[in-house]
Amino acid sequence: MKAHIAVLAGDGIGPEVVVEAQQCLEAIARRYGHEFRFEAAPVGAIAIDTTGSPLPDATLALSKASDAILFGAIGTPKYADPTLKVRPEQGILKLRTELGLYANLRPVTCFESVIDASPLKPELLVGVDIMVIRELTGGIYFGAKTRTPTSASDVCTYTVPEVERIARLGARLARERRGKLTSVDKANVLETSRLWREVVVRVLRDEFPDVALDHMYIDAAAMHLLRRPADFDVVITENMFGDILTDEASMLPGSLGLCPSASLGDRTRRSCQRPCCSGPRSALPPRRQRWNRPWSVRSPPACAPAILSRAARLPRPAKRVLRSSPGSNASRPAGGRPPPGAIFSPQASCGCARLPAPRWQPCRTVRCCPSPRRSAPSRARRPTAAHRRRCAPRRLPRPDRSP
Fold it and tell me: Residues with catalytic annotation?
Protein backbone atom coordinates (compact mmCIF):
# COMPACT_ATOMS: atom_id res chain seq x y z
CA MET A 1 0.00 0.00 0.00
CA LYS A 2 1.14 3.52 -0.81
CA ALA A 3 -0.08 6.48 1.21
CA HIS A 4 0.63 10.19 1.38
CA ILE A 5 0.38 11.32 5.01
CA ALA A 6 0.18 14.95 6.10
CA VAL A 7 2.02 15.46 9.40
CA LEU A 8 0.53 18.30 11.45
CA ALA A 9 2.57 18.17 14.65
CA GLY A 10 1.19 21.38 16.14
CA ASP A 11 2.30 22.69 19.52
CA GLY A 12 3.50 21.57 22.93
CA ILE A 13 3.68 17.80 23.22
CA GLY A 14 2.50 17.42 19.62
CA PRO A 15 5.90 17.28 17.87
CA GLU A 16 7.26 14.84 20.46
CA VAL A 17 4.35 12.43 20.08
CA VAL A 18 4.18 12.70 16.29
CA VAL A 19 7.86 11.82 15.92
CA GLU A 20 7.30 8.58 17.84
CA ALA A 21 4.14 7.77 15.89
CA GLN A 22 5.93 8.40 12.60
CA GLN A 23 8.73 6.03 13.60
CA CYS A 24 6.08 3.42 14.39
CA LEU A 25 4.52 3.84 10.95
CA GLU A 26 7.95 3.59 9.28
CA ALA A 27 8.61 0.33 11.12
CA ILE A 28 5.23 -1.01 9.95
CA ALA A 29 6.05 0.01 6.38
CA ARG A 30 9.37 -1.84 6.47
CA ARG A 31 7.82 -4.93 8.01
CA TYR A 32 4.83 -5.28 5.70
CA GLY A 33 6.08 -3.70 2.49
CA HIS A 34 4.08 -0.46 2.61
CA GLU A 35 5.28 2.87 1.29
CA PHE A 36 4.41 5.94 3.36
CA ARG A 37 5.35 9.44 2.26
CA PHE A 38 5.26 12.05 5.04
CA GLU A 39 4.89 15.79 4.48
CA ALA A 40 4.86 18.24 7.38
CA ALA A 41 2.95 21.52 7.73
CA PRO A 42 2.26 23.96 10.60
CA VAL A 43 -1.01 24.20 12.49
CA GLY A 44 -2.19 25.81 15.70
CA ALA A 45 -0.15 28.34 17.69
CA ILE A 46 3.02 27.86 15.66
CA ALA A 47 1.06 28.59 12.49
CA ILE A 48 -0.36 31.77 14.05
CA ASP A 49 3.12 32.95 14.93
CA THR A 50 4.46 32.33 11.42
CA THR A 51 1.48 33.08 9.16
CA GLY A 52 -1.16 34.72 11.34
CA SER A 53 -3.66 31.89 10.76
CA PRO A 54 -4.17 28.72 12.88
CA LEU A 55 -4.78 26.76 9.64
CA PRO A 56 -2.84 28.30 6.72
CA ASP A 57 -4.09 27.75 3.19
CA ALA A 58 -1.05 25.63 2.37
CA THR A 59 -1.73 23.33 5.33
CA LEU A 60 -5.38 22.95 4.34
CA ALA A 61 -4.41 22.21 0.71
CA LEU A 62 -1.94 19.57 1.88
CA SER A 63 -4.58 17.98 4.11
CA LYS A 64 -7.05 17.76 1.25
CA ALA A 65 -4.46 16.26 -1.10
CA SER A 66 -3.22 13.62 1.38
CA ASP A 67 -4.65 10.20 2.12
CA ALA A 68 -4.54 10.67 5.90
CA ILE A 69 -3.48 13.18 8.53
CA LEU A 70 -1.23 12.52 11.51
CA PHE A 71 -2.16 15.20 14.05
CA GLY A 72 -0.32 16.13 17.24
CA ALA A 73 -1.65 18.75 19.66
CA ILE A 74 -2.53 22.43 19.57
CA GLY A 75 -2.49 25.26 22.05
CA THR A 76 0.05 27.14 24.16
CA PRO A 77 -0.29 29.35 27.25
CA LYS A 78 0.32 32.33 24.98
CA TYR A 79 -3.09 31.80 23.36
CA ALA A 80 -4.98 30.54 26.41
CA ASP A 81 -7.17 33.65 26.64
CA PRO A 82 -10.61 32.67 25.20
CA THR A 83 -11.35 36.31 24.26
CA LEU A 84 -8.65 36.38 21.58
CA LYS A 85 -9.93 36.80 18.04
CA VAL A 86 -7.47 34.26 16.63
CA ARG A 87 -6.93 31.08 18.62
CA PRO A 88 -5.24 27.72 17.85
CA GLU A 89 -8.50 25.78 18.37
CA GLN A 90 -10.01 27.51 15.35
CA GLY A 91 -7.56 25.60 13.17
CA ILE A 92 -8.81 22.14 14.10
CA LEU A 93 -12.46 23.24 13.89
CA LYS A 94 -11.90 24.55 10.37
CA LEU A 95 -10.02 21.37 9.42
CA ARG A 96 -12.97 19.21 10.49
CA THR A 97 -15.42 21.34 8.52
CA GLU A 98 -13.35 21.54 5.32
CA LEU A 99 -12.60 17.80 5.25
CA GLY A 100 -16.04 16.68 6.45
CA LEU A 101 -14.64 14.83 9.46
CA TYR A 102 -17.96 14.32 11.20
CA ALA A 103 -17.16 11.49 13.64
CA ASN A 104 -14.50 11.26 16.34
CA LEU A 105 -13.74 7.78 17.64
CA ARG A 106 -11.89 7.46 20.93
CA PRO A 107 -11.16 4.02 22.43
CA VAL A 108 -10.87 3.89 26.22
CA THR A 109 -9.14 0.77 27.53
CA CYS A 110 -7.68 0.11 30.98
CA PHE A 111 -4.58 -2.03 30.84
CA GLU A 112 -3.64 -3.98 33.94
CA SER A 113 -0.01 -2.89 33.73
CA VAL A 114 -0.85 0.79 34.24
CA ILE A 115 -4.04 0.45 36.23
CA ASP A 116 -2.41 2.28 39.15
CA ALA A 117 -2.26 5.42 37.00
CA SER A 118 -6.04 5.84 37.31
CA PRO A 119 -7.54 7.76 40.25
CA LEU A 120 -10.38 5.19 40.41
CA LYS A 121 -10.37 1.99 42.43
CA PRO A 122 -8.77 -0.87 40.49
CA GLU A 123 -11.80 -3.12 40.93
CA LEU A 124 -13.94 -0.63 38.95
CA LEU A 125 -11.60 -0.79 35.96
CA VAL A 126 -11.59 -4.51 35.29
CA GLY A 127 -12.89 -5.22 31.79
CA VAL A 128 -13.24 -1.56 30.72
CA ASP A 129 -13.27 -1.33 26.91
CA ILE A 130 -15.31 1.61 25.62
CA MET A 131 -15.59 3.24 22.22
CA VAL A 132 -16.89 6.81 22.41
CA ILE A 133 -18.19 8.26 19.12
CA ARG A 134 -18.61 12.00 19.14
CA GLU A 135 -20.36 14.00 16.40
CA LEU A 136 -17.84 16.61 15.24
CA THR A 137 -19.30 19.06 12.73
CA GLY A 138 -22.68 20.07 14.18
CA GLY A 139 -24.23 21.24 17.38
CA ILE A 140 -23.53 24.31 19.43
CA TYR A 141 -19.87 24.57 18.40
CA PHE A 142 -20.81 25.31 14.79
CA GLY A 143 -24.12 27.11 15.29
CA ALA A 144 -24.81 30.81 14.83
CA LYS A 145 -23.33 33.03 17.53
CA THR A 146 -24.38 36.51 18.61
CA ARG A 147 -23.03 38.91 21.20
CA THR A 148 -24.33 42.23 22.50
CA PRO A 149 -23.21 44.28 25.51
CA THR A 150 -25.94 42.66 27.61
CA SER A 151 -26.47 39.19 26.13
CA ALA A 152 -24.96 36.39 24.09
CA SER A 153 -26.29 33.31 22.31
CA ASP A 154 -24.98 30.10 20.72
CA VAL A 155 -27.41 28.18 18.55
CA CYS A 156 -27.39 24.38 18.67
CA THR A 157 -28.69 22.83 15.44
CA TYR A 158 -28.82 19.24 14.21
CA THR A 159 -30.33 17.75 11.07
CA VAL A 160 -31.68 14.25 10.54
CA PRO A 161 -28.85 13.18 8.15
CA GLU A 162 -26.23 14.31 10.69
CA VAL A 163 -27.74 12.13 13.39
CA GLU A 164 -28.37 9.18 11.05
CA ARG A 165 -24.74 8.81 9.99
CA ILE A 166 -23.53 8.84 13.61
CA ALA A 167 -26.17 6.28 14.60
CA ARG A 168 -25.22 3.97 11.72
CA LEU A 169 -21.51 4.24 12.50
CA GLY A 170 -22.08 3.49 16.18
CA ALA A 171 -24.37 0.55 15.41
CA ARG A 172 -21.87 -0.99 12.97
CA LEU A 173 -19.09 -0.81 15.54
CA ALA A 174 -21.36 -2.15 18.29
CA ARG A 175 -22.29 -5.10 16.08
CA GLU A 176 -18.60 -5.97 15.67
CA ARG A 177 -17.94 -5.62 19.40
CA ARG A 178 -20.33 -6.65 22.21
CA GLY A 179 -23.57 -5.60 20.53
CA LYS A 180 -24.51 -2.77 22.89
CA LEU A 181 -25.03 0.88 21.94
CA THR A 182 -25.63 3.73 24.41
CA SER A 183 -26.99 7.03 23.10
CA VAL A 184 -26.31 10.03 25.34
CA ASP A 185 -28.54 13.12 25.09
CA LYS A 186 -30.61 15.56 27.16
CA ALA A 187 -34.02 14.80 25.70
CA ASN A 188 -35.86 15.91 28.83
CA VAL A 189 -34.76 19.52 28.20
CA LEU A 190 -33.36 20.10 24.69
CA GLU A 191 -35.31 19.88 21.45
CA THR A 192 -32.20 18.87 19.50
CA SER A 193 -31.81 15.93 21.89
CA ARG A 194 -35.39 14.87 21.31
CA LEU A 195 -34.71 14.82 17.56
CA TRP A 196 -31.47 12.94 18.23
CA ARG A 197 -33.27 10.24 20.23
CA GLU A 198 -36.08 9.80 17.70
CA VAL A 199 -33.65 9.36 14.81
CA VAL A 200 -31.43 6.93 16.71
CA VAL A 201 -34.42 4.80 17.71
CA ARG A 202 -35.67 4.65 14.11
CA VAL A 203 -32.27 3.77 12.61
CA LEU A 204 -31.57 1.02 15.14
CA ARG A 205 -35.08 -0.42 14.82
CA ASP A 206 -35.09 -0.53 11.03
CA GLU A 207 -31.45 -1.31 10.18
CA PHE A 208 -29.80 -2.86 13.26
CA PRO A 209 -32.40 -4.87 15.19
CA ASP A 210 -29.67 -7.15 16.58
CA VAL A 211 -27.94 -4.29 18.45
CA ALA A 212 -29.13 -3.53 21.99
CA LEU A 213 -29.90 0.18 22.41
CA ASP A 214 -30.28 2.17 25.58
CA HIS A 215 -30.54 5.91 26.21
CA MET A 216 -28.95 7.96 28.94
CA TYR A 217 -29.07 11.61 29.91
CA ILE A 218 -25.73 13.38 29.83
CA ASP A 219 -25.68 14.07 33.58
CA ALA A 220 -26.44 10.42 34.38
CA ALA A 221 -23.85 9.25 31.85
CA ALA A 222 -21.17 11.39 33.49
CA MET A 223 -21.96 9.70 36.80
CA HIS A 224 -22.24 6.10 35.57
CA LEU A 225 -19.07 6.42 33.49
CA LEU A 226 -17.16 6.57 36.77
CA ARG A 227 -19.47 4.36 38.84
CA ARG A 228 -19.72 1.37 36.45
CA PRO A 229 -17.49 2.00 33.40
CA ALA A 230 -17.25 -1.67 32.42
CA ASP A 231 -20.97 -1.70 31.52
CA PHE A 232 -20.41 0.61 28.52
CA ASP A 233 -19.56 -0.69 25.06
CA VAL A 234 -20.15 1.87 22.27
CA VAL A 235 -21.33 5.38 23.18
CA ILE A 236 -22.64 7.92 20.68
CA THR A 237 -23.37 11.53 21.53
CA GLU A 238 -23.47 15.05 20.15
CA ASN A 239 -20.54 17.45 19.85
CA MET A 240 -20.44 19.27 23.18
CA PHE A 241 -21.51 16.29 25.29
CA GLY A 242 -18.84 14.18 23.59
CA ASP A 243 -16.19 16.79 24.23
CA ILE A 244 -16.90 16.56 27.96
CA LEU A 245 -17.40 12.80 28.23
CA THR A 246 -14.21 11.88 26.35
CA ASP A 247 -12.07 13.95 28.69
CA GLU A 248 -13.81 12.40 31.67
CA ALA A 249 -13.34 8.92 30.20
CA SER A 250 -9.61 9.55 29.85
CA MET A 251 -9.33 9.35 33.63
CA LEU A 252 -10.30 5.68 33.50
CA PRO A 253 -6.89 4.66 32.10
CA GLY A 254 -5.37 7.63 33.95
CA SER A 255 -4.34 10.08 31.24
CA LEU A 256 -5.34 11.62 27.94
CA GLY A 257 -2.02 10.29 26.69
CA LEU A 258 -3.45 6.77 26.83
CA CYS A 259 -6.49 7.69 24.72
CA PRO A 260 -5.75 8.06 21.00
CA SER A 261 -8.48 9.09 18.60
CA ALA A 262 -9.46 9.16 14.95
CA SER A 263 -11.67 11.68 13.15
CA LEU A 264 -13.42 10.11 10.17
CA GLY A 265 -15.37 11.43 7.21
CA ASP A 266 -17.26 9.99 4.26
CA ARG A 267 -14.04 9.17 2.46
CA THR A 268 -12.70 6.18 4.34
CA ARG A 269 -9.08 6.85 3.39
CA ARG A 270 -9.07 10.48 4.51
CA SER A 271 -8.97 10.64 8.28
CA CYS A 272 -7.24 12.56 11.03
CA GLN A 273 -5.37 10.30 13.44
CA ARG A 274 -4.23 11.58 16.83
CA PRO A 275 -1.93 9.13 18.66
CA CYS A 276 -2.22 11.18 21.84
CA CYS A 277 -5.22 13.36 22.70
CA SER A 278 -3.63 15.96 24.93
CA GLY A 279 -3.04 19.65 25.40
CA PRO A 280 0.24 21.51 25.24
CA ARG A 281 1.71 19.79 28.31
CA SER A 282 3.17 16.33 28.55
CA ALA A 283 0.40 13.77 28.90
CA LEU A 284 2.39 10.84 30.27
CA PRO A 285 5.33 10.27 32.57
CA PRO A 286 8.53 10.06 30.48
CA ARG A 287 9.03 6.33 31.14
CA ARG A 288 5.59 5.54 29.67
CA GLN A 289 5.50 8.17 26.97
CA ARG A 290 7.69 6.17 24.62
CA TRP A 291 5.14 3.37 24.50
CA ASN A 292 2.23 5.57 23.44
CA ARG A 293 1.51 4.40 19.89
CA PRO A 294 -1.42 4.92 17.54
CA TRP A 295 -3.69 1.93 17.17
CA SER A 296 -6.80 0.90 15.33
CA VAL A 297 -9.93 2.92 15.95
CA ARG A 298 -11.81 -0.30 16.70
CA SER A 299 -9.61 -1.63 19.49
CA PRO A 300 -5.96 -1.58 20.63
CA PRO A 301 -3.68 -4.18 19.05
CA ALA A 302 -3.08 -7.50 20.72
CA CYS A 303 0.48 -6.43 21.56
CA ALA A 304 -0.59 -3.29 23.45
CA PRO A 305 -0.85 -4.98 26.90
CA ALA A 306 2.62 -6.47 26.47
CA ILE A 307 4.05 -3.10 25.43
CA LEU A 308 2.53 -1.30 28.40
CA SER A 309 3.61 -4.12 30.72
CA ARG A 310 7.17 -3.69 29.50
CA ALA A 311 6.93 0.06 30.05
CA ALA A 312 5.63 -0.46 33.58
CA ARG A 313 8.68 -2.57 34.39
CA LEU A 314 11.12 0.15 33.39
CA PRO A 315 13.23 1.38 36.33
CA ARG A 316 11.39 3.87 38.49
CA PRO A 317 12.96 7.31 38.95
CA ALA A 318 15.91 7.14 41.34
CA LYS A 319 15.34 8.52 44.82
CA ARG A 320 17.72 10.27 47.21
CA VAL A 321 18.07 9.36 50.87
CA LEU A 322 19.62 11.27 53.76
CA ARG A 323 22.97 10.23 55.18
CA SER A 324 23.46 10.57 58.91
CA SER A 325 24.74 8.67 61.87
CA PRO A 326 22.50 6.06 63.55
CA GLY A 327 20.12 7.55 66.07
CA SER A 328 20.45 11.09 64.77
CA ASN A 329 17.23 13.09 64.62
CA ALA A 330 18.73 15.27 61.90
CA SER A 331 17.86 12.58 59.36
CA ARG A 332 14.09 12.98 59.97
CA PRO A 333 13.20 16.28 58.30
CA ALA A 334 9.98 17.90 59.48
CA GLY A 335 7.11 17.37 57.07
CA GLY A 336 9.14 14.87 55.03
CA ARG A 337 11.34 17.60 53.49
CA PRO A 338 15.15 17.61 53.70
CA PRO A 339 16.60 20.33 55.96
CA PRO A 340 18.64 23.15 54.39
CA GLY A 341 22.16 22.02 53.57
CA ALA A 342 21.34 18.33 53.92
CA ILE A 343 23.90 15.89 52.55
CA PHE A 344 22.58 13.25 50.19
CA SER A 345 24.07 9.83 49.55
CA PRO A 346 23.30 7.22 46.88
CA GLN A 347 23.57 4.52 49.53
CA ALA A 348 21.58 4.36 52.78
CA SER A 349 22.65 2.43 55.85
CA CYS A 350 19.56 0.24 55.46
CA GLY A 351 20.93 -1.06 52.16
CA CYS A 352 18.48 0.75 49.86
CA ALA A 353 20.77 1.75 46.99
CA ARG A 354 19.57 4.79 45.07
CA LEU A 355 21.23 7.03 42.52
CA PRO A 356 21.05 10.83 42.77
CA ALA A 357 17.80 12.29 41.42
CA PRO A 358 16.70 15.84 40.52
CA ARG A 359 14.54 16.14 43.63
CA TRP A 360 14.50 14.42 46.99
CA GLN A 361 12.04 11.63 47.62
CA PRO A 362 11.89 9.06 50.41
CA CYS A 363 13.53 5.74 49.64
CA ARG A 364 11.05 2.96 48.82
CA THR A 365 12.09 -0.64 48.23
CA VAL A 366 10.13 -3.87 48.38
CA ARG A 367 12.45 -5.12 51.10
CA CYS A 368 11.94 -2.46 53.76
CA CYS A 369 9.73 0.35 52.51
CA PRO A 370 5.98 0.76 51.95
CA SER A 371 5.03 -0.18 48.42
CA PRO A 372 4.04 2.80 46.22
CA ARG A 373 1.46 0.69 44.35
CA ARG A 374 -2.03 0.79 45.81
CA SER A 375 -2.98 -2.42 44.07
CA ALA A 376 -0.29 -4.53 45.79
CA PRO A 377 0.45 -3.13 49.26
CA SER A 378 1.15 -6.58 50.69
CA ARG A 379 4.38 -6.99 48.75
CA ALA A 380 6.33 -4.84 51.21
CA ARG A 381 7.04 -5.15 54.91
CA ARG A 382 6.82 -2.43 57.51
CA PRO A 383 9.89 -0.15 57.58
CA THR A 384 12.46 -0.86 60.24
CA ALA A 385 13.30 1.65 62.95
CA ALA A 386 16.73 2.22 61.39
CA HIS A 387 15.15 2.93 58.06
CA ARG A 388 12.75 5.44 59.63
CA ARG A 389 15.69 7.35 61.03
CA ARG A 390 17.56 7.43 57.75
CA CYS A 391 14.94 7.65 55.03
CA ALA A 392 11.96 9.31 56.77
CA PRO A 393 9.42 7.40 54.62
CA ARG A 394 6.17 9.14 53.85
CA ARG A 395 3.48 8.76 51.20
CA LEU A 396 4.11 11.02 48.26
CA PRO A 397 1.33 13.25 46.93
CA ARG A 398 -0.28 12.00 43.74
CA PRO A 399 1.16 13.72 40.66
CA ASP A 400 -0.87 16.32 38.82
CA ARG A 401 -2.45 14.61 35.79
CA SER A 402 -4.26 17.65 34.41
CA PRO A 403 -3.75 17.88 30.64
Answer: 141, 186, 219, 243, 247
